[in-house]
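Hi R.,

Here's the chain you asked about this morning:
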Amino acid sequence: MPRTFRQTVVEAATVLLLCVAVPGNVHSQSIGRDVQANVSVECNALLEGVNRGMAERKPDAFVAAASFYESGRCVGRSDPRAVELLGQAARMGSGAGVRRLSRRFALGNGVPQSYANAGAWLTGKGATNEALQPWDYSIGYAYAVLSQVLAKVQFPAGELREASEASFVVEIDAQHPRQVNLRPTAENAASHPKVYSALRGALNEPLAAVLASLTPPDPALLTAARVAVPVSVRSKGDAALDVLEDTPILR
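And here is the predicted structure, written out as tokens:
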């Protein structure tokens, strides 16, 4: 791999990943109450439950603690603390921690923006000293695009009432990101072509705005890489929908 790539991606990634290093004594960590806030009985119970989970080294508890710091609910809002907790959850194998940490790096939310770091956490290199490749960078960029599309999309509730539930995989190609590809996976998909056509249109509708909002990737670092996310959308009647996203598939 050319030295210039190592200098711009690998060495920079090593510095940024220090932001989410796991402290040596995880057991001593806890989520603190905001003494200036009017902490309710409910908050006390929630924080005590999260602290117990963190003391027992449960990854989901660290993700939950990060959510408190992200929202400012029951505690003082703190992006650095949220990033630290997500990093700990990711190192303990939490898929949710990995995805949320990757998204933060991809968007530069509370950390320096870095597609290399975003990809590193998704590909399993975030907690290692393994050298990054252009593929890691490209995975980070593709995930940035796809995760933003899924965050912005307005699913067609009217059409979904016809099928009750739709299951599909959506995919972005890092080198050709101007189209969201959709592949139906439901057994009855062939019986509902209008539903999947509407879904395809809805997913592509915010794409131009998403691409314009992201930090432009370095074309020299983009290589053949695709990120796919299995999605299930269920109609609950009227305009209400349940949306479930599964673990990203990296190609």
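One quick note: The longest strand covers residues 226-235.

Cheers,
M.
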